[in-house]
Design brief:
Blueprint: E1 2-6, H1 10-18, E2 22-26, H2 29-35, H3 39-49, E3 54-57, H4 63-74, E4 80-85, H5 88-99, E5 104-109, H6 112-120, E6 125-128, H7 130-135, H8 140-153, E7 159-162, H9 168-177, E8 181-184, H10 186-193, H11 196-213
Parallel strand pairs: 1-2, 1-8, 2-3, 3-4, 4-5, 5-6, 6-7, 7-8
The protein binds erythose-4-phosphate.
Erythose-4-phosphate binds near residues 107 and 163.
Length: about 220
Amino acid sequence: MKLFLDSANIEEIREAHALGVLSGVTTNPTLVAKEGRDFHTVIKEIIGIVSGPVSAEVIATDADGMVEEGKRLFELGPNVVIKVPLTKEGLRATDRLARLGIPTNVTLVFTLNQALVAARAGATYVSPFVGRLDDIGHDGIALVEDIVQVFERHHLDTEVIAASIRHPEHVARAARAGAHIATVPYAVLMKLIEHPLTAQGLERFLADWRRARGAEPVPG
Ligand code: E4P
C-alpha cells in the first residue's frame, strides 16, 4: 500500500517528502482554504516538491465547469489528478476527462455502488471516506475491503485510496484490506513512525554507549 499525504500545507508536504515515504498528495477545498492562499499557486508548489500524483479538487458542480476547471488544473503539471465529487455531474465529468486522458480521483465515496459507478465512468482512483463513515457508526474499513475485492473480481483497474484517515489503526487496517493507497494527514503520518518502546530503546542504547565510553561524545 502506498502512502499519500492529505494536506495542502507546503511545510508539511516538504517534511513528509524528505522522509522518502510519500508517493503522492491529496488536497480538498477545505485543506486549501485553511492555507488562505491562491489555489493554483499552492498546487504548483506541491507539484514542485512531489513527483507522484497530486489531487486537486474542482469547485464547479456542473460537468462542463468541472471539465474546464480540470483541464486548467491539468495544465499545471502532468502529475495533477482531478478530484471530482461523486455526483451525476461528477460522473459525466469523470468520463469526459478520462476520454481526454486526464486522470481523476472520484471523492466522497460512501458505498460500494458509488465506487463501482465511478470506476465504470473511468475514474483513475476512488476515495472511500473511512473516518466519516466511522463517525456515523459504520465500518469505513469494511467498505474499503469490499471495494478492493469487487474491483479485483471484476478486473477494474481503478485504484482505491483509503481517505478520511483519523489514526494509525485506520492505516494498518487499510493495508490489510488491500487498499492501493492510504492518504493520511501529517499528524497521523508522524504517529506511524513513533513508538514509546523505540524511543525508550534508543535512549537505553545511547546511555549504555555513554557509560562504556565515558565522556566520548555520541556522533550526530
Ligand atoms: C480525501 O482525499 C480527503 O481530502 C480527506 O481524506 C477528507 O478527510 P476528512 O474526513 O478528515 O476531512
